[in-house]
Fold each of these.
Amino acid sequence: MDLPRIYVSLSKRRLYLYEGNLLIRSYPIGIGKILTRTPIGNYVIINKVPYPYSRPGGPLSPYGTLWMGLSRPGYGIHGTNRPSSIGKMVSRGCIRMFNQHVEDLGRRVGIGTSVMIRP
């Protein structure tokens, strides 16, 4: 069985999950603003950190329900507490997803999964 890999198209604002040459899933994403663009390149997922929907007496996490850190420090694929931001150029360079989508992706990929980000 082929390992999963992630391909991100910034121009289409989509994240694609492949196993070999087979497309498994496609998700809409939010990407970096003009001044804080999402970095183009080849990376790997280096960690996965779940977040609760809310903390007692505290705000929702800006990373939604899951953070998956990339091998480029400070960047990751994560959920959001602002679902209206999906499809837009609004982040500080990270890739934002709907919480239910990042949770689905997180169940399908592991640490070491390759992530290709292209224009």
Amino acid sequence: MMYGCEAWTISKQTQKKLEATEMWFLRRMLRISWTAKKTNDTVLEEAHTTRLLISKIRKRQATFFGHVMRREKLENLVTTGMLEGKRSRGKQREKLIEGLTDWLKAGKSLEAIEATKDRKKWRTMIANAVKQGT
């Protein structure tokens, strides 16, 4: 289901769609009719869970990003967006690193890139972000 999610850039709109899909799945699994007036919070309480889909995707992205940054090859340049050439016109696309730094609360993207070099530090950052949720 989530093959290749490591390379997705998740915008606010995409995140809302994923959360709506996850809620739809939960309601279907719990056999809650769409006419039943239950809030999403009560559905999550009945399922004894929190929103898992976004946090799993972000965790997979962060582990993949750390792996790529430690290799220091062509994938590193592509992922960070540090390629030669002109920028395209219009609004710039969101980069994977920007979404991860927001999720990890790392401040600047350069701090996140530096943190990937120390594997233990990177893993603790990921673990803390997963505990805090999205």
Amino acid sequence: MTERMQWRTSSYSTDHPNNCVEVAALGVGVAARDSRDRAGGVLGFSGAQWASFVDDVKGGVYDLA
């Protein structure tokens, strides 16, 4: 199934395209995977869960340093 998904990375990841999270739309949700292990596991999130996560990242909730 993951072979048919349209995976994308953030435009902010251009300097390190193999060191990020890739996401794909799943109709009403989002799938996410590690770009360094594309054959590994895929996590699924509802649209609301993903939107909440993105808002938290933008709001500085997580230490991204």
